[in-house]
Specification:
Layout: E1 2-7, H1 15-25, E2 29-33, H2 44-49, E3 52-57, E4 65-70, E5 76-80, E6 93-98, E7 101-107, H3 117-138, E8 143-148, H4 172-184, E9 187-188, H5 189-193, E10 202-203, E11 215-216, E12 219-223, H6 225-228, E13 231-236, E14 252-256
Parallel strand pairs: 1-2, 7-8
Antiparallel strand pairs: 1-14, 2-4, 3-4, 5-6, 6-7, 8-12, 9-12, 10-11, 13-14
Helix pairs in contact: 3-4
């Protein structure tokens, strides 16, 4: 089973590119972030036409996550919204069961500028995420928590550590929160199979970042022990960043045995 993630940066604006990717790579599950669509205007019928059924947690204009499942049945939704803060109105989390695997699609807050309330929100969101992920570990569920983490884990995951040193994505607090997840027992699948780094998943639209290969890795797939044992392969669909009207992210994926 191939489980993929794609921060699409506007599902309606980039629908042709997204349909193209689904048709060419045919993931069994596709998790989307930054759909930037309300629940009412999400183009679910367009995905049904190409063999996918969707569940989504939308928000007009920004944020928003979705899980697409190949076939006639949608994923079985388990949880919508990250628990732990009743005042959090951002649509950044959706959790579902697909073929015996718990699939968690996340869009973690960016956190810039630093310091400030947005960075505080990011760190608090990561604490809440760790609480939920600890529950999944305790239940021994085969699970993947996949999506845009907005964290550059190590210097090997960025074209220039110096250039990003003041960014929220690379702050010691952000990295510490990420590695607390790893130390709890989760496996960073991309890092496991590509330990030397250099696997960028994001290139900014500004300053010719794509053309100069000034990228970094912020899209991750963390596997629970029960699923990490079934990991076959991982990868990044880099070529899609170079296409017309592309997202600034590229898809990442994992393959696990059934």
């Amino acid at each position: 089973m191939r489980i993929a993630s794609f921060n699409i940066n506007g599902v309606k604006a980039r629908l042709p590119r997204l349909i193209e990717w689904l048709d060419e790579t045919k993931p069994d599950v596709a998790c989307l972030q930054e759909i930037k669509s309300s629940d009412e205007t999400f183009p679910g019928d367009a995905f049904h036409e190409v063999g996918y059924r969707a569940i989504w947690h939308g928000q007009k204009g920004f944020n928003g996550v979705a899980i697409l499942r190949r076939g006639e049945e949608p994923a079985h939704e388990v949880l919508r919204g990250l628990p732990g803060d009743d005042e959090d109105t951002h649509s950044r989390y959706i959790e579902a069961d697909v073929n015996g695997v718990r699939v968690v699609c996340i869009y973690l807050p960016n956190g810039n500028p630093v310091p400030g309330p947005k960075f505080d929100y990011k760190l608090n969101w990561m604490k809440r995420l760790r609480t939920r992920m600890s529950q999944l570990l305790a239940d021994e569920i085969p699970a993947v928590v996949i999506g845009d983490y907005n964290v550059i884990p190590e210097d090997k995951d960025v074209w220039s550590p110096k250039a990003m040193a003041s960014d929220a994505l690379m702050q010691p607090e952000s990295r510490d929160a990420y590695f607390r997840l790893i130390n709890d027992g989760w496996t960073d699948a991309i890092d496991l199979h590509h330990p030397r780094g250099g696997m960028w998943t994001f290139w900014d639209y500004q300053a010719g970042a794509w053309q100069r290969d000034h990228g970094f890795r912020i899209d991750h797939a963390l596997l629970s022990p029960a699923l990490a044992d079934r990991l076959i392969a991982t990868g990044i669909d880099r070529e899609y960043r170079g296409r017309e009207k592309a997202s600034d992210h590229v898809p990442v994926w994992v393959e696990v045995t059934d």
